[in-house]
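Section: Multi-chain targets

For targets with more than one molecule, the full set of components is provided together so that the structure can be written out for the assembly as a whole rather than chain by chain. Components appear in the order listed by the source. The example entry contains two components.
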Amino acid sequence: MTTLSAILVGLAMGAVFGFALEKSRVFEPGVIVGQMQLRSFIMLKVFLTAVATGLVVLAALHGFGFAKLFPKATIFGADIVGGLVLGAGITLAGACPGTVLAQIGAGYRDAWFTLIGGLAGALTFSYLEPALNPILLSGGPGRLTLNGVFGVPFWPLALGFAALLVAGLVALERWRPWRSEMGENYDGLLPPAQPAPLVGAGRRQPA
Amino acid sequence: MREARMYAPAAKAWSPYAAGVVIGLLQIPAFLLIDTALGASSSYVTVSGHLAAIADPGIKAIKYVARHLEGAKNWWQVAVVVGIALGALLSSRLSGTARSAPSPVWQRAIGRHAPPTRFAMAFAGGFLMLLGARIADGCTSGHGISGSAQLAIGSFIAVAAMFGGAMLTAQFLRRV
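Its structure, encoded as tokens over all components, is:
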């Protein structure tokens, strides 16, 4: 595929991605911070549904021989350290590297600062990569997968895992229906929980 | 949902399950047309690398940067993230949920309304996000959505660390 046609396919796929992110409200900082404080579960619902769908899609594509898979190499230190730093950034930004673009599209002004910070972070990593590579970014057991470890074909394990995720999502939805988590302004902000009255403490005014 | 039918383009919200299915189905064109998995964070290396090369052409000598600068897959991912902004723009205009000022969640979370505070926090958040994503070699999309769907052990570890780091950091914010 030429670069130009790849760009056109990318724009179309991104537009669908962005449309779905906006409609699900998962791009809202209130939803993302709420998830990390375990007050909202919209992010987990979108995320796990996307994973389950991907598992079914890839079970079919790979099982029938239409596509090969590209699991990333396991590098324990890099996966753990990188994941922790990425997670800290997600909470402070109230975004992920993809959803920040949805925030920009929806109009959030502060998302431009997240984007510029992201470019600066990627650039900083680029300059550090030659030094970090031997100490943090290499070694490890290679492209380790769950099916490889168990020595079974990909597709049955993928379908089984997808079924497990769907069961979890059904339970999650029963416990916390998604409509109850949207908030009046669809930003994932719910009325603050009434603080338990403290004896002798002054009533805190809402900011 | 009161205003428009469920799943209409003008609806203010779709169920997270419908949106998740749509996102997961994007793996079909990614694997069949582009021969790769859905991802977002390496596009930041492509874009920042090209911008930095204007001032410092020497950056192209870094192999990691060089392999992100050109080629259909790199530009495809840049196009995806640009497309995300366009799709969200369209969706928010159709439903009347366009935003402007920072989300009110920040006033609750940090107790301040001054935009410069929020802008600085957003910059720092973005910086850590991409620094971490590049160390881990993937983000919520590349490791989270795509890596998990390929049953990659490294992606499960990265996702657990990501949620762990995010939840720990959220403890330092006020409860929203």
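Chain A is about 65% helix and 0% strand.
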